[in-house]
Write a structure and sequence with these properties.
- It is a single chain.
- This protein has 18 helices and 15 strands.
- It has about 550 residues and is an alpha/beta fold.
- A hairpin with a 2-residue loop joins strand 9 and strand 10.
- May be involved in recombinational repair of damaged DNA.
- Keywords: ATP-binding, Coiled coil, DNA damage, DNA repair, Nucleotide-binding.
């Protein structure tokens, strides 16, 4: 339950701090006094989005803090799962900065809005007039039935399985499409792969082939140049060898005279040895040179094949062609494995469908059992709320579709009077009837829910007199199991509360501000009398107010 609320710099509230008690609390006030502001502040604490319009003074931050007593609501696991410090009295604080940024804290630990919203689901249900209209929505109707049917855990398991089922179905459809599209593609890829494999490509061979081609294609020029070089080197009287030997002999004579001459001699000797090696290698190269047109043709063909493949695949190297070859091999292998993967996936999907059907059957049967309970309880409560002839027709229609909450569709029909046909709630129920039905629903759900706090925001729309008294009594009965707040304009309901708060608006200087005050017993008599007769309170109104309170 919420034990206290403090608000600073929010809308028309400059500063406010109020404590709440368990049981049934009433909030009243004139239209425009600020009741919606109090709800808005609580909404911010529960994780609703905020903006700069929330700030009364745009230069200061807005701070809203609420204290909750949660020791009886088994929330330790939630705090542990979200890595939050658990306290029996948990404090939630929301700050809106002048920059427009918002911050949230649970027991002084920073949290994001999603974590705040997740926690709020266990703390407070704010029932507004909009929520009354949502009663016509099939999803809301199912939630009501499932709460009574105790289907929550089963539906949660079903939803987790459904998520896996849909994921596998999506994967299967993608595989089937890939298999369908892969016919011609597989044939073409096979051709490309065979073409590359038959080329017998090797990394680095293109450079070797190009070198061989240049050598074979220019063999005559190469041989002529080598032979000429050998002649110049080896000619008896004027060859390089002869001249080098002459120089070496001349330097050898003067080498002993100084280190400098010795160095010249050694260097020319080294040159002579190196030149001798080069000459021998040129001789070997000359002997190996053959005019081989057949080999030249083979090298030329292989290079042309490589060039053609590179052009076809838009690459510039043999290594890139080899990578394409590997990729094509993997693609074809993957396509070969698709059929086996499809078969495995199909069996898994079939098994999950069987399990989903079993869960859906359990959910359906629990709903079948819950519907008479819900219908009878609704009729019983609504009869006391001035609807003696009310009837409900809730029919489950089995479907082949896997919905998020099972395989049922629902017809939730209603008739308020004898002799009238059943119709959809939103079409045949008046505003007052919808308010009473929603109150009856909340009263029933209170028996199955562990929610600490429920706030009714003007659920009394369209009712008055004895019906309003009975609505107040029902809320009073609900407050024995949970904390109930009712924002109301009806004195009959206001008189049923254990505590009574009044929202008022006052002008302070040049500013208007809202205030929330806990009324004393005497103040409460006057407030209810004003609700009965207006601003001018008559003796009869005071007596009537006292009678209602008693």
């Amino acid at each position: 339950m919420i034990t206290s609320l403090s608000i600073k710099n929010y809308a028309l509230i400059e500063k406010l701090s109020i404590d709440f008690s368990k049981g049934f609390s009433i909030i009243t006030g004139e239209t425009g006094a600020g009741k919606s502001i109090i709800l808005g502040a609580i909404g911010l604490v529960l994780g609703k989005r905020a903006d700069l319009t929330s700030l009364k003074n745009k230069e200061e931050k807005c701070v809203i803090e609420a204290h909750f007593e949660i020791s009886k609501y088994n929330l330790k696991d939630f705090f542990a799962e979200n890595d939050l410090d658990y306290e029996d009295e948990t404090i939630i604080r929301r700050e809106i900065l002048p920059s427009g940024k918002s911050r949230a804290f649970i027991n002084d630990s920073p949290v994001n809005l999603q974590e705040l919203q997740d926690l709020s689901l266990f703390l407070i249900d704010i029932h507004s007039q909009q929520q009354t209209q949502e009663l016509s929505d099939e999803t809301v109707q199912f939630k009501i039935i499932d709460a009574i049917a105790n289907n929550f855990d089963t539906i949660l398991t079903y939803q987790n399985l459904l998520k896996l089922y849909k994921s596998e179905k999506s994967k299967l459809n993608a595989l089937l499409k890939k298999q369908s599209d892969s016919g011609k593609e597989q044939e073409y890829n096979t051709f490309l792969l065979n073409e590359l494999v038959s080329a017998k490509l090797k990394s680095g061979e293109q450079a070797e082939l190009e070198a061989d081609f240049e050598k074979l294609n220019n063999v005559e020029i190469i041989k002529e140049s080598i032979d000429k070089s050998l002649v110049i080197a080896n000619e008896e009287q004027f060859g390089v060898f002869h001249n080098l030997n002459e120089i070496k002999n001349a330097l050898q004579k003067i080498a002993p005279f100084s280190a400098e001459y010795q160095n010249f001699f050694e260097r020319i000797t080294s040159i002579s040895i190196e030149f001798d090696d080069v000459s021998k290698e040129l001789q070997n190269a000359s002997e190996k040179l053959l005019n081989d047109p057949e080999q030249l043709e083979l090298v030329s063909q292989k290079l042309q094949l490589i060039f053609n493949l590179q052009k076809k695949h838009h690459v510039n190297s043999v290594d890139e062609l080899l990578q394409i070859q590997a990729d094509l091999g993997n693609t074809l292998l993957e396509l070969d494995n698709i059929e086996e993967e499809i078969e495995t996936l199909s069996k898994s999907i079939e098994q999950k469908a069987t399990e989903l059907d079993a869960f859906a059957t359990t959910i359906h049967q629990n709903r079948i059992n819950a519907i008479p309970v819900l219908s009878n309880q609704l009729i019983s409560i609504l009869e006391t709320l001035g609807m003696p002839n009310v009837r409900f027709n809730m029919e489950l229609l089995p479907s082949e579709t896997y919905f998020q909450n099972g395989k049922d569709e629902l017809q939730f029909l209603f008739s308020a009077n004898k002799g009238t046909d059943f119709g959809l709630l939103k079409k045949v129920a008046s505003g007052g009837e919808m308010s009473r039905i929603m109150l009856a629903v909340k009263a029933i759900l209170a028996q199955y829910s562990k929610l600490p706090t429920l706030i009714f925001d003007e659920i009394d729309t369209g009712v008055s007199g004895e019906i309003a008294i009975r609505m107040g009594e029902i809320m009073k009965e609900m407050s024995a199991k949970m904390q109930i707040f009712a924002i109301t304009h009806l004195p009959q309901i206001a008189a049923k509360g254990d505590s009574h708060f009044k929202v008022s608006k006052a002008t302070v200087g040049d500013h208007t501000q809202s205030e929330l005050k806990l009324l004393s017993q005497d103040e409460r008599v006057i407030e209810i009398a004003q609700m009965l007769s207006g601003a001018v309170v008559s003796d009869s109104a005071l007596n009537h107010a006292k009678a209602l309170l008693n």
